[in-house]
Amino acid sequence: MNEKTLRTLEFHKILIRMENHASSALGVEKVRNLRPMSSIEDVVRGQEETDEASHVLRLKGHAPLDGIHNIKQHVKRSVIGGMLNPIELTQIASTIHASRSMKRFIDDLVENEVDISLLAEKANEIIPLPELEKEIRNAVDESGEILDSASVTLRSIRQQTRRAESMIRERLESLTRNRNAQKMLSDAIVTIRNDRYVIPVKQEYRSHYGGIVHDQSSSGQTLFIEPQAVVDLNNSLRELQMKESQEIERILAGLSAAVAEVEEELYHLVDVMGELDFIFAKARFGKEMKATKPAMNEKGFIDIRKAWHPLLPMEEAVQNDILLGQDYTTMVITGPNTGGKTITLKTVGLLTLMAQAGLFIPASEGSEMAIFKEVFADIGDEQSIEQSLSTFSSHMVNIVEILKKVDHESLVLFDELGAGTDPQEGAALAISILDEVYQRGAHVIATTHYPELKAYGFNRPSVINASVEFDVETLRPTYRLLIGVPGRSNAFEISRRLGLSNSIIESAKGMIDTESNEVENMIASLEKSRHAAEEDYQEAHNYLKNAEQLHKELQKQMIEYYDRKQELYDRAERKAAEVIEKAKAEAEEVMRELRQMRLESSTNVKEHELIEARRRLEAAVPEFDKGSAKSPNKKQKQEFNPGDEVKVTSFGQKGHLIDKVTDYEWNVQIGIMKMKVHERDLEYIKSEQNKETKPMATVKGRDFHVSLELDLRGERLEDALLKVEKYIDDALLANYPRVSIIHGKGTGALRSGVTEYLKQHRAVKRIRLGEAGEGGSGVTVVEFK
Asked: Which of 96, 166, 281, 340 could form a disulfide with 479 if both were Cys (CB 3.0 to 4.6 A apart)?
């Protein structure tokens, strides 16, 4: 991707913002080197990595990336024999520790079956180096101080050093406590000069203590003297300090050599940790923008939904839908310079670069971006104080360079194409340039204020006009992109709003040729039609949502009905089976007794015994209640009329006939539902000829249907009872067999009040608390008579 386009579309500002989300210098470096990719495999992988990191942040809220340092220079110095200082070693240990923490973090997520295959692949490349980390930690603390535990020799030397210092202090402090000390010493303290312990002696008493003078005050009145009594002790201390320095150097040299031994592992570890830091920086940046993952394609298809420019505050930016590459590959945004056209160009261009760099884009879910090998932009930002106004020459220089490289895998963005010269010539040039780029197969978005280009989209296939909406009432652009509607001049309307005389405006209109007037009128008509279409679409969309909700409710009712029906069938079958089994057992008992009687009696069985056995067999035959059974005789042909009350036998529901659809089918109103039913499934109940059948009224609004549940949680008891009363009436009108009232568990006051009301309601057959799958004691199920 050419650097000029990156600068023009301000891609570097995106990287600067993303740097703030990196946890280390390694991550910052990778962010600064990020560039858009042109390979579909690389782009998709980059998007997937960002998506996995975003998923991890949603689950855990963080990633353990603290303590990472760029230790490559430290490792390089150790390899060539250099001795690392304690701070450098601490940074190496910290980086190793951070890598182990990150590996453990990702491994735990994988064990919990979180789908992060790409991050897991990165984590598997981390080579733990616990031995080196432990060796450094035992020798150097986090502040860079060498610990006594670094070696036995160092511990012994430091113990001797502390004893020597104690002896020297005791000897000198005894001198400061001498009865003559107040007279001979400037101050009764022990201090250090040139790494040796001394006392401050007045100039005139220097000979009293003997020893060595190491320093004097600025006035010369005080000498810092090492008394002869401690010279030997100070010499011994100095020797111990030199031994300590030598031992520390030996320890650091050994640790440096240990670092050099794992040179390749450390280099690779640094690269992996930098990559992980970079991936999570992309995810954090996307979270900050509330961005989403776009689908990617190589077909040149762009479908950005509710997109906004990422460098604008989200709460202020206008969101637009932008479509390119399916029915049309060229979009010409026309209209006056009222703002919004350039920002549309930059939004498409910058979001394309971001998507190809593996970043999420500031747009709604379901957006799709195309992959281009090159993005070219000729955009003169006249609103930037950092740049001078673009001239026709500078525009043409850019366009010439673009035309040298553009092909069918390019996205080209032209801002104010042909501007800066004679309008007629500029418009002609703009049309020719657009034709040339279009013929090469490139995808183009161009802005212009030339009216001649308004007809461009109508005369050429795969080209569409667009404009940025302008509110004449407020005299401000709304920044909404209107695809399919060319921009029109608002000069007359704006002038009228600002108070210009109507006579002047009418005179100006008369100077415009008829063709231009017709074009403007056509555009105005298109805008009016678009507004009407949007309103119709919204109304239709609302109706569709309501219909879908009603359909779901009806499906739920039908499922409940069939479940209940099957339950009753199953219960009847079980009862019948029990009766039959009982009859069989009784019959077997009778037969067994008869056989026994025949065997035990030498005479024939007496008549009354046979009569008794026959009676018992007859009694064993199960009896069924036939009171409700239908007559086996074929029912007579019934003449149906609109308004008759009937029973739909296939559903077991009552309803009213509305009208006859065919010779054998009727429209039947069952509660809130209207359906077509065959006459064979209809059972006549009574005539309603004197009663006008009213079809179900259409009630507009989101709540025109009755839900199977009433949620009272958070309501006061008085208000809740009013809602229950109205809801029960609505449910009865809807012919619902049962409903659920959600009152929650809480203190139980709301449940008790609702229960008392339901017990006294004339239409309630039975109430019960919900089962485990229905909400338990927080729900009351009501069955109607």
From this structure: 340
The neighbouring-strand residues paired with 443 are 411
Backbone phi, psi, residue 417, to 5°: -60, 130
* Of 71-85, 293-307, 381-395, minimum mean pLDDT range: 381-395
CATH number of the domain at 465, please. 3.40.50.300
281 and 321, same domain (yes or no): no
Mean pLDDT of 672-701: 62
Q: Which amino acid is at 175?
A: L
The neighbouring-strand residues paired with 320 are: 307
Q: What's the structural domain count of the chain? A: 6
Q: Within this chain, do residues 123 and 269 fall inside the same structural domain, yes or no? A: yes
Q: Which two tokens stand for residue 8?
A: 């023009």
String of DSSP letters for 727-745:
HHHHHHHTT-SEEEEE--S
From CA 438, how far away is CA 769, in angstroms rounded? 70
Query: Are 317 and 380 in a shared domain?
Result: yes
Dihedral angle sign, alpha carbons of residues 424, 425, 428, 434: negative
What is the domain range of residue 720?
709-784
Q: Could you give the CA distance from residue 378 to residue 419 in angstroms, rounded to a whole number? A: 12
Predicted pLDDT of residue 705? 65
Give just the sign of the alpha carbon dihedral 77, 78, 83, 88. Answer: positive
- Same structural domain for residues 204 and 69? no
Q: Which of 585, 619, 653 delimits the end of a domain? A: 619
| Element spanning 520, H or E | helix 514-600
Structure tokens at 9: 């579309």
Q: What predicted TM-score, i.e. pTM, was given to this entire model? A: 0.61
Residue 144 lies in a domain: no
Asked if 688 and 721 touch (Cβ cutoff 8 Å), the reply is no
The token pair that represents 495 in the structure block = 């002038």
Asked whether residue 523 is assigned to any structural domain, the reply reads no
Judged against a pLDDT cut of 60, whether residue 389 lies above it is answered with no
Residues 42 and 125 in one domain: yes
Secondary structure (DSSP) of 21-39: T-SSHHHHHHHHT------
Contacting residues for 623 by C-beta, under 8 A, at least 6 apart? none
